[in-house]
From TrEMBL:
Keyword GTP-binding: yes
Source organism: marine sediment metagenome
Assigned keywords, A-Z: GTP-binding, Nucleotide-binding
A molecular-function term among this protein's GO annotations: GTP binding
Organism lineage: unclassified sequences, metagenomes, ecological metagenomes
Protein name: GTP-binding protein
Keyword hit for Ligase: no
Pfam families given in the database record: Arf
Amino acid sequence: EDDAAVNSKILSLRARFMEKYGKILKTEWTGNRTIFYEFEKEVDNIILGSIKISIIGFGGVGKTTLTRLICGKDVDLEYIPTITADIAEYGGDEIGRTLTLWDFAGQAQFRSLWRSLLEGTDITLLVTDSTFENINGSKEIIHDILDKYFQEKLVIGIANKQDLPNRLTPEFCEKILSSEKRIIRTHGMISIEPMYREKILAIIKEAIKEIPEKKKKGVNND
């Protein structure tokens, strides 16, 4: 990055540090440095930026429900189609980084926007409803968009609705979605069940470790 960008981030870090610890340093600090450990997350967010997660898939597969699960919000069981894209931010301590979640509208009339909305994505969650028809159709998303324009992006499959009787196993979904070009690790999910929140957060936390360092630092080589 150029000097101006670096200086701007340094000033932001200083301001945030003084906002958080200025009063403590002046009046209460006893020399215990462990109180500053939690500031590491602030450093990552300012220097590296938030993690953009794009949640894509056809309509009705549970993308919005998954977004709400990640954010720890109550799940609305009534299906309300997303228009274009909804954006949510989550900065919980479980992850250690701020997440910016892009929930893409899955209806046919909005799919032409997916390519532009995917720009700058760090992690893509491809959500399916675990039926053969939907999994097979989702291969078109991989072939027509992800493999064609975003070959280097990290894509994770979410085999949602594993509570339904006609669901395919995550392992079988992974075999259908993957190809010689790209292995799409696929995880089973029931996004309407709060107990699955720990699992999806663990999946995201592990995925963040796989983001190439140059992407973490915001270097765009696309």
